[in-house]
Amino acid sequence: MRPASGILLVDKPGGITSHDVVARSRRAFGTRKIGHAGTLDPMATGLLVLGIEGATRLLTYLVGLDKTYAATIRLGAATTTDDAEGEVVSTADPEALTAVTDERIAAGVAALTGRISQVPSTFSAIKVDGKRAYDLARSGQDVELKAREVTIDRFEVHNTRRQDGAIDLDVTVDCSSGTYIRALARDLGAGLGVGGHLTMLRRTRIGPFALADAHDLEALADQPALLEPAEVAARVLGRLDVTADEARDLRHGKRLEGAAARIEGQNAAAIDPDGVLVGIVERRGAALKSAMNMPEVQA
Q1: Quick check: is 82 catalytic?
Q2: Which of 11, 20, 41, 187 is catalytic?
């Protein structure tokens, strides 16, 4: 029997890679056709969105969604990886830390809010000449990554804990896809002149999907219920109800002439009378055309 197709929300624990979660899911669901819509570092915990079987085709439309993170930033030390797993490369003098007032922290946070230019962490999965940056960095090579524009919609400090040699900040960050929270910690510490790195990171939201709805890793063995592709696509892109004839035309690569006015954005989820996701349509002038078709459900 063919495994079900759908989207699975998983709460990744710390200490394992996102690929480890995919591998365990493949064993649990009996299929290799599983992918994810955005990785988490081994140290990080929280929401991973997995696509199973035909629903892997939806991951392209999920990977770019904005995200929310809960994090702890430690001011007073910089590390090679910008998180607690790296080696400490500098520490702040006690006098410098004492000079970091709440007001200066607030100003530093404000400077990193909105549309900003961010250089990703050297120890990241970004490819440089076909190789992962973290592999190059671990081999001792100098890695220079280009700055990229990201959007920080919210960078809020909830709690400040001052201790010997460090200031810990518990924060929430709402950000665009591609943002490195480790880089935020690094840049906040650098701007304050004391260094900074991440000691905790937990992803709590991806687009409309919340960590509260995710399954623990242990629950995968029971093959938890999947989110239907039609539900997921409609929540992300908006819904276009199509007739059986229109569904057939879309599956055959035909355009729906004059149908562009029926959707609000550039794309929408085309859903047939049985509630099945036909695929994702896109505007082509006044017409709609399939940008992606789902595998047809066999009766």
Answers
A1: no
A2: 41
